[in-house]
Amino acid sequence: MDKDSALELSQDMVKDQTYFLSHLSQDQLKRLIFPLGCLSKDKVRKLATEFDLPNKERKDSQGICFLGKIRFSDFIGRHIGEKEGVILEAETGDFLGKHRGFWFYTIGQRQGLRLPGGPWYVVEKDVKNNVVFISQLECKVRHGPRFCNCTLIVEHGEDGNEDVAVVHLSEDDQGLAAGQFAAFYQGRTCLGSGVILESWDDQGFPVCAKALENARMEDKSLLGKPWLHIF
After folding, report:
1. I want to staple 122 with a disulfide (CB 3.0 to 4.6 A). Which of 96, 109, 173, 225 is the partner?
2. What pLDDT, in 10s, does the model give residues 4-18?
3. What SUPFAM superfamilies does this protein's entry cite (predicted)?
């Protein structure tokens, strides 16, 4: 097949998977077939009942596809292992608890922290020292059927460097986190995606910048104290 393959939105926008497939190459897309893409989940369940399929009453999966009933944390623990580290508050550096390894956490994560006084969100990870920084600033990624208009400017890399795109959203979204994918669409066609390197608010400041700045400080003794202005 010489013609390029297109990744289209499915009939069921709630269950649509194009966001997760948006980074696939043309070579990979040409080998894929989605026979249920034109059907809604309710229609699929109805057909499963009519044909008396063994999985007709199976509940929707809330975990990672193809892992079966194993939880994500158990899967990660089995393949990577555990290493105890500390959880610190990003603004103050206060010790708030311990964790089993930074790889169990994602930026923006709220669930699973099990800490009092929340809600808490993961805002930074010190990979070298196995430290997880949390804050009460909301900084997470949302996934769902809603789209946002945007403009995209591609800055071509030089000397073999990868291209970088600057994206301006039509509305504010505090749920953008570095390391996540941003997928782009034209009509019902998914054009592709890229990894978010950093996000900025409408004032030009990095999202969660203060929390990240304090999290990286070596000396936190002056946090919370007034600044001295010398003229």
Report:
1. 109
2. 899 999 989 888 889
3. Adenine nucleotide alpha hydrolases-like
